[in-house]
Amino acid sequence: MIYNLHKCLLFFHSSMESIPPYLLCSFFLIIISCLMPYFTQAQTYKNISLGSTLIAKQDNNSFWASPSAEFAFGFQQIQKDGFLLAIWFNKIPDKTIVWYANGNNLVPTGSKLELARDGTLVLEDTNGKQIWNAESNNTGSVSYAAILDTGNLVLVSRDSVLLWESFNQPSDTILPTQTLQGDIKLFARYSEKNYTYGRYNMTLQEGNLELHVTYSPRDSRHHVYLTSETDGNTNQLIFNQSGFIYLPAKNGSIIQILSSDAVSPQEFYQRAILEYDGVFRHYVYPKSTISNGRWPMAWSSLFHMPSNICFMKLGQSGDDRGMGPCGFNSYCQMEQGRPTCQCPEGYSFTDPNDESLGCRQDFVSQSCDRETPETDQFYFQEMKNADWNLSEYEHFQQVTEDYCRLDCLSDCFCAAVSFVDGNCTKKKSPLSNGRIDASISWKTLVKVRKNFSSFKPGRADSEDKDRSTLVLIGSILLSSSVFVNILLLLATIVVFSLHSRKRSKVLQPRVVLPGRNLQCFTYGEIKEFTNEFSQELGSGNFAKVFKGVLNSDSGDPVAVKRFYNIVTEGEQEFKAEVNAIGQTNHRNLVQLLGFCTEGEHRILVYEFMRNGSLASFLFSKSGIKWHSRIQIAIETARGLLYLHEECSTQIIHCDIRPQKILLDDSFTAKISHFGLAKLLKTDQNLTVTEIRGTKGYVAPEWFRNMPITVKVDIYSFGILLLELICCRKNLDLGAEDEDQRILADWAYDCYIDGKLHLLVKDDKEAMDDMKSVEKFVKIAIWCIQEEPSLRPSMKKVTQMLEGAVEVSIPPDPASFFSSI
Ligand SMILES: *[C@@H]1O[C@H](CO)[C@@H](O)[C@H](O)[C@H]1NC(C)=O
Ligand SMILES: *[C@@H]1O[C@H](CO)[C@@H](O)[C@H](O)[C@H]1NC(C)=O
Ligand SMILES: *[C@@H]1O[C@H](CO)[C@@H](O)[C@H](O)[C@H]1NC(C)=O
């Protein structure tokens, strides 16, 4: 602040002599605006006087707010009877926590925070035991406390000196205007909802910014896994008021800007946090979405480091060991920008409630007895693009894959083997630093005992636990004396019978399809919970959608889709398709809950999306903010990516358009109507009359007697993307200028003529972000290439949207066909 002031005054002073008087006014304005932050901060001291207290109460977050009410300081309930003393963003629905005092030690209801008469800020539990305090060197002279509009909690002396600041004792987050320096550290929490110290911390040391990790989750020794490599030249990390995060050199010049994609602090909340997964991320949250009361959006990340935590060697000493972010035997994979931990086949989580602790082997290891090599007792689970690169112990060159496999099978030390281009690398147990990533060119074959058990490991439900107990019992049976065997056998029978009795009690009187818990409803039930189909939500060629309320205590609303004139071969086929839809599970897909196939009735029951379809917002007057539109584009892309490439049976949607994108309570985009193309047999029987309804979204191959592939969805997504960018329908026959009637053509013309601003000219936010507009238009043009093979895959589209890969210059969408 002071620094700013100096700069302004200097500027003013040096330029004063030569200016015409009428400009003086504007200089005064500049001065005032330079001083503004100083004044506003000075005014934001809202006194919390000595003797004030706050009590932790159930169902009532007691707090003191900052003058603007954007930040609050007080108790947040984390568990049933566990409160965290914290500072949080108070105007956003999820009250994101930015600072906390007692992460390791939650306090019960009735605990008290007091700004004592002697000037200490003290947290006491119900027994009067002190849990935490903020003590300045000079407590006696504290005159009041305040939570400022920057999110800083301060203890202030009579003469306005800050004696203590929460900014100097951060938890895992820093905020604009906050600086990391000296021996101040950020400590990541244990997991998203567990505020105990985790494995990671971040600090400035010997002139570098360093990220540290402990050797293992329960160890306190740690080592560096990422450093700024600033050669000892920096001793600060600054998060400045305009949202830049950078490392200044000791002389003040900037050596490294970490996050420069700054957005206006007037319009966005910002925070930078070292998260529980070891990644430091800079997040923004548009304020406007709150003030207009309609768009509670998620935080989106502007910057993160390291770029792929799965590739970091974490844990143990030296460069050649480490269990990675996920623990032994597991593998790490980035999904939607976050690392996830999974177990290979034959392994399951050591602690199903904490997937970062690694996996244990579920089968008996290979015997090393030479007489019984057990070579035929094992098989390989093949994993593409997978690697456990720190468990290697033997390497062969110029061998065949068969050689590689056989060698590992007959070697009792070999737990897995990697193979690429004649290179064979054997890995021993425990497998460490596992990851899957498209950049890994080789595959890994994980050795698993045949028929050890047929269950899929990795889920935290009790059934799996029971089964693994059985496996264990089974394996002990193989190796112990007759007497113990008999005892164990008896025990097993008891466990079994208890288990099955328990199951028969909880078994629901419903037909449940394999895969998911899809409920099979009777027509009578459906009639009842839709109140005889009284509330229609919409209708199409094949179906009508009604609102219903499930007969449960929760009273959750559902959407009931009732099909008419449906061409289906029979009940079995309908069930098979419904099952395929029911197996899907993704945040950006509308979830199928159940179905009815009684007599001629064909009905699907879905989760209900309170905010209806994207179309109703996108083309209405109120519109959707630019930032939210980007978010919706990315979410839709992720949903489609899942349907195309990630679910067990590939699903082509065939009808992507804004009417089919629904928005949930928090305006997350979810694709609906997927999987129905096959059900309705539209893929074969679609005639031009039938597609006319959605003209503009359908790919040219529908008309050209070409095979229908996933690329038809890419085309439709391209059109949708253009509509999201421009907030108008692809086809606007009322447009005054004839060139503008078809958005796809007009957008390409604007792109070629370098006049993209015409597309978003009434949208200030988009106008301020022309770089993104251009990127998105380019992606859309790639998607609407008339030649299907030129269109990118959904994976590529998603990567381009998220900025993970560059977008190259797209060709004219029609060029391929006009040239033949
Ligand atoms: C806060 O309290 C101090 C000391 O009692 C007082 O001097 C100051 O004016 C108060 N400030 C406000 C904004 O009330
Ligand atoms: C948080 O994680 C730690 C470490 O695993 C555990 O000891 C603690 O019980 C957890 N706390 C909560 C509130 O779940
Ligand atoms: C924040 O840092 C950036 C990069 O150095 C600079 O351009 C900007 O003016 C700074 N903002 C403030 C308020 O100091």
Automatic annotation (TrEMBL):
Sequence ranges assigned to domain Protein kinase in this UniProt record: 531-817
Listed transmembrane segments: 21-39, 470-498
Residues the record lists as binding ATP: 561
Keywords per UniProt: ATP-binding, Disulfide bond, EGF-like domain, Glycoprotein, Kinase, Membrane, Nucleotide-binding, Receptor, Serine/threonine-protein kinase, Signal, Transferase, Transmembrane, Transmembrane helix
InterPro entries for this protein: Bulb-type_lectin_dom, Bulb-type_lectin_dom_sf, G-type_lectin_kinases/EP1-like, Kinase-like_dom_sf, Prot_kinase_dom, Protein_kinase_ATP_BS, Ser-Thr/Tyr_kinase_cat_dom, SRK-like_kinase
Domain Bulb-type lectin: 39-168
EC numbers for this chain: 2.7.11.1
UniProt keyword annotation of Transferase present: yes
UniProt keyword annotation of Signal present: yes
Major localization listed first in the record, in broad terms: membrane
Catalysed transformations (reactions): L-threonyl-[protein] + ATP = O-phospho-L-threonyl-[protein] + ADP + H(+); L-seryl-[protein] + ATP = O-phospho-L-seryl-[protein] + ADP + H(+)
PANTHER family recorded: G-TYPE LECTIN S-RECEPTOR-LIKE SERINE/THREONINE-PROTEIN KINASE SD2-5, G-TYPE LECTIN S-RECEPTOR-LIKE SERINE_THREONINE-PROTEIN KINASE LECRK1
Annotated protein name in UniProt: Receptor-like serine/threonine-protein kinase
